[in-house]
Design a protein that fits this description.
734 residues, alpha+beta, Agglutinin, subunit A, Hepatocyte Growth Factor, Transferase(Phosphotransferase), domain 1, 3 domains, 8-stranded mixed β-sheet, 13 helices, 23% helix, binds 2-acetamido-2-deoxy-beta-D-glucopyranose
Length: 734
């Protein structure tokens, strides 16, 4: 080596050292090396690359962290699994472009480029991406964004490069002191219809649901926003999600082993602020409700079988173990596949896509035909909801279905033809109402009433001889004609016991027709007896029974028609006819009068069991009339509390001891009354209410305590006192 070249080498070295010590360097070449203690900094000064020790550990790692953030926040680690135990480590890029972390001449960590470089350069970009380039080429021969640690940064593709078989996934640090891979992983699946999974070890912990054109099906909150833009790319070569910041702020998303969450933070003067996380709620727990069940977080219990399905094991289901899920009421047979139909379910997070198929060209009609034709196909829907295009179909059981109170997607589920008619009508009402199945009714009526009749009938028969109430018996044809053959267009509501139709008799009188679910096991005599009992209950705040109809397994009740429909059409916020407060007060008083009559003043003590806004009808002057009380449980003698294993009613209105243990009494109604009052005074639906700061429904939110106090647990004061407490409350709440 001559003198000149020696001087050149020395000046180069000095210049290099100078640059490193002042942190102005953003790259290194094969002739340079980065020792422990040196750093390079991205051009604008966002990020730094160097050696660090995490938490209280003494181990040394090569990593990238924010330059300007005082708490060292590491976003990428090179030698995660192979720490260096002293400060002798060196990072270098060799002449072909490969990266090596070296300790005492042995390679601790290395990364190889896609192809050999001629004049490689290792550079730290202001995005936090560490890249290897070759000469003047813009292409990256290697980049740290392809091998993320636990953190996703703006501009990082998260998901698959299918051509290279590269899976960009996030793996949590084991703990604060140890960046080696934990068992908590966020990964894009490789399915025909991809979605993201959060894994905890080898079990799925949460899934995002597939992309629907706007967002992942399970993340209805992912919307265009001022902070970041996002997109999902899915084609033959790639399947990835990418987020890019629209503002100059520091933001990072990471998988956190400590609390099993995927979290998104932004930097503020007070530190890192958490502003989004997954899973969001209990219903995000993967497959919590098993197959063919939906999870609605505002419900209690949160899991419900889908319409047309029943718990696989009723006993387990009742003990709140939903893992076995639900099975069809009617089995499907492949030979009859062409007779099958599809039932539309709305507001859902689409089921797990492990066994799915996707065609982005088909429309919904073609999709249906495709699904119908293959009897292992259980459901179909549009894959892109922006313009209702594309076809996604599911094979095998449908698991992990979440129901959203608002938003969510449609799914068409294969059904036995016999399941289509009846449910379809009920489904007309979009509102999330717990539809009580026929079996529950029969259970209630047989259990609740049969034994009573066995020892009371004789007495009653004698009584009835004397004061027989005249309840007209309608024939089925009359009722069918009046309701236009039970046309779906005539459905005006659906209660727990069956759909309600509007009808008009030949004489011009309008009627409301309640068609009880068919497969009730209740006998004819018992039904008639019950009708007579109902007819005896006469009060101006109870809906008046005009007649009934029995034919075959049809059981129908005919009530006077209320032109103003039910209370729910008036009290809720989105309604234009919102009632003034004094009117609301009158309505409350009216309902309470009716209830008091059912509970105390009538000859029978009647517990309604399904008191709710849609069961309160309003006459022309907006006087409230309680309806549906006829199918309630009547009490005899001095019993005051009964236990049932068939809980009927509507979640949200049910008292806890009833919903959980099936114990009911007049107190159950008083509880429901409390809920109803809350709805009337607040104009919010019990099941729709949401508060930005917590997950409670209307009950859990403050006033709930009052409902519990008066309705649920205070048995000692008499009913009258309870009612007057309600009255006392009303003006205050206004
Ligand atoms: C550090 O690791 C090297 C290589 O594994 C080993 O030879 C050396 O003894 C270790 N030093 C200390 C202080 O543990
Ligand atoms: C560069 O490093 C890689 C990985 O350590 C090694 O396989 C390769 O032989 C090295 N190339 C040269 C020219 O030293
Ligand atoms: C993980 O979450 C905990 C609790 O929210 C938080 O204190 C911690 O900083 C998080 N970990 C990281 C790496 O941000
Ligand atoms: C139905 O779809 C499944 C899954 O794609 C496939 O294996 C099976 O061959 C199909 N059956 C028919 C009859 O097309």
């Amino acid at each position: 080596m001559d003198l000149l070249s020696s001087i050149l080498v020395v000046t180069n070295l000095l210049f290099f050292l100078f640059k490193i010590s002042y942190g102005v360097l953003d790259s290194i070449t094969p002739s340079q090396r980065l020792s422990d203690g040196d750093t390079i900094m991205s051009r604008e000064g966002n990020f730094v690359l160097g050696f660090f020790s995490p938490g209280s550990s003494k181990n040394r790692y090569v990593g990238i962290w924010y330059k300007s953030i005082p708490v060292q926040t590491v976003v990428w680690v090179a030698n995660r699994v192979h720490p260096i135990n002293d400060t002798s480590g060196i990072l270098m890029i060799n002449s072909t472009g490969n990266l090596n972390v070296i300790q005492n001449n042995s390679v601790v960590w290395s990364a190889s480029t896609l192809k050999e470089a001629q004049s490689p350069l290792l550079q730290l970009l202001d995005t936090g991406n560490l890249v290897v380039t070759d000469g003047n080429s813009e292409d990256y021969l290697w980049q740290s964004f392809d091998y993320p640690s636990d953190t996703m940064l703006s501009g990082m593709k998260y998901g698959w490069d299918l051509k290279r078989g590269l899976n960009r996934r996030l793996i949590a640090w084991k703990n604060w002191d140890d960046p080696s891979p934990g068992n908590f992983i966020l990964e894009m699946t490789h399915h025909n219809y991809p979605e993201a999974y959060l894994w905890q070890g080898s079990t799925i912990y949460f899934r995002s649901g597939p992309w629907n054109g706007y967002r992942f099906s399970g993340l209805p909150g992912l919307k265009p926003n001022p902070v970041f833009a996002f997109k999902f790319v899915f084609n033959q070569d790639e399947a990835y999600f990418i987020c890019t910041l629209k503002q100059s702020l520091h933001a990072r998303s990471l998988v956190n082993q400590t609390n099993s969450m995927f979290q998104r933070f932004t930097w503020t003067e007070q530190g890192w602020k958490l502003h989004a996380y997954l899973p969001m709620d209990f219903c995000d727990t993967y497959a919590l409700c098993g197959a063919y069940a939906r999870c609605l977080v505002t419900d209690f219990p949160v899991c419900q079988c889908l319409n047309g399905f029943k718990p696989k094991s009723q006993q387990r289901w009742d003990s709140m173990d939903w893992s076995q899920g639900c099975v069809r009421n009617k089995r499907l047979s492949c030979e009859e596949k062409s007779t099958h139909g599809f039932l539309k379910f709305s507001g859902l997070k689409l089921p797990d896509t492990t066994h799915s198929w996707l065609n982005t060209k088909m429309n919904l009609k073609e999709c249906r035909a495709e699904c119908l034709n293959n009897c292992s196909c259980m459901a179909y829907t549009n894959s892109d909801i922006r313009e209702g295009a594309g076809c996604a179909i599911w094979f095998g059981d449908l698991v992990d279905i979440k129901q959203f109170p608002t938003g969510g997607q449609d799914l068409y589920i294969r059904m036995h033809p016999s399941e289509l008619g009846s449910i379809h009508k009920l489904n007309k009402k979009k509102r999330v109402v717990v539809i009580i199945t026929a079996s529950i009714i029969s259970g209630l009526l047989t259990l609740g009433l049969l034994w009573r009749f066995t020892w009371k009938t004789t007495n009653r028969r004698r009584e009835r001889k004397k004061e027989d109430v005249d309840v007209p018996l309608f024939n089925f044809t009359t009722v069918a004609t009046a309701t236009n053959k039970f046309s779906p267009a005539n459905v005006i509501g659906a209660g727990g016991f069956g759909p309600v139709y509007k009808g008009r008799l030949c004489n011009g009188q309008d009627i409301a027709v309640k068609r009880l679910s068919k497969n009730s096991r209740q006998g004819l005599e018992e039904f008639k007896t019950e009708v007579v009992l109902i007819a005896k209950l006469q009060h101006k705040n109870l809906a008046k029974l005009l007649g009934y109809c029995v034919e075959g397994d049809e059981k129908i009740l005919i009530y006077e028609y209320m032109p103003n429909k039910s209370l729910d059409c008036f009290i809720f916020e989105q309604n234009d006819n919102l009632l003034a407060w004094p009117k609301r007060f009158d309505i409350i008083i009216g309902i309470v009068r009716g209830l008091l009559y059912l509970h105390q003043d009538s000859r029978l003590q009647v517990i309604h069991r399904d008191l709710k806004a849609s069961n309160i009808l309003l006459d022309i002057n907006l006087n409230p009339k309680i309806s549906d009380f006829g199918l309630a449980r009547t009490f005899v003698g001095d019993e005051s509390e009964v236990k049932t294993d068939r809980v009927v009613g509507t979640y949200g209105y049910m008292s806890p001891e009833y919903a959980i243990d099936g114990r009911f009494s007049v107190k159950s109604d008083v509880f429901s009354m409390g809920v109803l009052m809350l709805e009337i005074v607040s104009a919010m639906k019990i099941r729709k209410f949401s508060h930005p700061n917590h997950h409670h429904n209307l009950l859990g939110h403050g006033l709930g305590t009052i409902v519990y106090m008066f309705g649920g647990f205070t048995f000692k004061i008499s009913n009258l006192e309870m009612y007057s407490s309600w009255f006392a409350m009303c003006p205050k709440v206004s």
